[in-house]
Specification:
binds magnesium ion; 5-stranded antiparallel sheet; alpha+beta; 372 residues; 9 helices; binds adenosine-5'-diphosphate; single chain; 21 strands
Length: 372
């Protein structure tokens, strides 16, 4: 049993194989493949209506998948009842028991599992401290704010150390400071217990700060599944590049591909930014050598004043707007009819002269090649 206290490595392996879900003729999930190793923290990131909750429901067994299989520790669970899966769950519209107090709600899963009263009391107390609700033990849900209720629901979902934990927007009702604290706490708890955790969010920053892996979904399909750095540095497509925050998507024409000794391709082509061809690099798996009009994603922070160093590519741009943020300066610039987002250091910003074209540079390695 998983109830004998906090143990390392309680996490289960989850694999979702070719799962689709239809509501009538509407395809809410299409051919989803997802693999979570024991103890991994995976975020499902996508905008509203993309299918995130549906995916959790299918994993939890609240919804049958129309097609495909789900394995927990190698066992096919698609047909089994959900209570057998021993999954910890926190749903978006968490339902606390209205007739139970804070302590009673959190104790509930332990009582169902018939833990000794002493152990129940200890765990409930620890959990209440963890979610910062000490002093509110005897209140009823209706006497709590939305954020407090959400923390009770979270505590109830994790109090029995479930080997697989599913969280649907667990921090949605919290204000910013508490959100940050709770991000840290959830990560600490799940990592220290080794729970495998799948957490749904529409917040990029939250996904980045908490996850071992991120799964980006849109319209019921996985756009990319990878580590935060893979997703940020090597977006699989334009959707991912744009979804992960401000970036610049630069079209290329007449692209030529040259494979280098280390398997990396050097891609040169013309862009609106400059008369000179530009150079970007890409791994073999992300290259389609037959296509001569790819795009590349270029992060605002990869663009620097050309005067400050030597760069693979340089171009001239006119600064249109700047916003001083203290640590950095956000700027909008125009070059070759493209509007560019820049993020400059304060010292670079001081070197700018208003109304004059400025030479900027970036390196091939700081780009990501994309096709669609
Ligand atoms: P998310 O959690 O990413 O916001 P959902 O998984 O809740 O999205 O929903 C995905 C899509 O499936 C939406 O278009 C939604 O309207 C639809 N949907 C969800 N549940 C049902 C249902 N029971 N019947 C019909 N359509 C549904
Ligand atoms: Mg949802």
């Amino acid at each position: 049993m998983i109830l004998s206290g906090a143990r390392k490595g309680i996490g289960q392996e989850l694999s979702v194989v070719n799962v689709s879900k239809y509501y009538g003729s509407f395809k809410a999930l299409e051919n989803i493949n997802l693999m979570c190793k024991p103890g991994e923290f995976v975020s499902i990131l996508g905008s509203s209506g993309s299918g995130k909750t549906t995916l959790l429901k299918v994993i939890a067994g609240f919804e049958r998948c129309s097609d495909g299989k789900i394995f927990i520790n190698g066992n096919d669970v698609a047909t089994g009842p959900c209570f057998k899966r021993n999954i910890g769950m926190l749903f978006q519209h968490y339902a606390l028991f209205p007739h139970l107090t804070v302590a009673g709600n959190i104790a509930y899963p332990l009582k169902v599992r018939r833990l000794p009263q002493e152990e129940v009391d200890k765990r409930v107390k620890d959990m209440i401290a963890l979610v910062k609700l000490t002093g509110l033990e005897d209140r009823f849900p209706r006497q709590l704010s939305g954020g407090q209720q959400q923390r009770v629901a979270l505590a109830r979902a994790i109090v029995y150390n479930p080997p697989l934990l599913l969280l649907d927007e667990p921090l949605g009702a919290l204000d910013k400071n508490l959100r940050h604290d709770m991000q840290f706490e959830i990560k600490r708890i799940t990592h220290s217990l080794g729970m495998t955790t799948i957490s749904v969010t529409h917040d990029q920053e939250e996904a980045f700060s908490m996850s071992d892996k991120i799964c980006i979904v849109s319209s019921g399909r996985i756009q990319q599944f990878g580590t935060p750095s893979e997703i940020y540095e090597r977006p699989a497509n334009r959707f991912v590049a744009e979804f992960m925050g401000t970036t610049n998507i630069i079209p290329m024409k007449k692209a030529k591909y040259e494979k280098k000794a280390d398997g990396v391709f050097a891609v040169t082509g013309t862009t609106p930014l400059s008369e000179k061809p530009m150079l970007v690099t890409a791994g073999e798996s992300s290259v389609r050598t037959g296509e001569d009009a790819p795009f590349f994603a270029l992060r605002p922070e990869a663009i620097h004043l050309a005067a400050g160093g030597s760069y693979d590519n340089t171009f001239s741009a006119e600064i249109k707007e700047t916003i001083y943020l203290g640590q950095s300066v956000k700027a909008k610039a125009e070059s070759g009819g493209l509007e560019l987002n820049l993020s400059l250091s304060v010292s670079e910003f001081r070197g700018l002269k208003a109304g004059e074209p400025v030479a900027f540079g970036f390196n091939a390695a700081d780009t990501a090649l994309i096709y669609d």
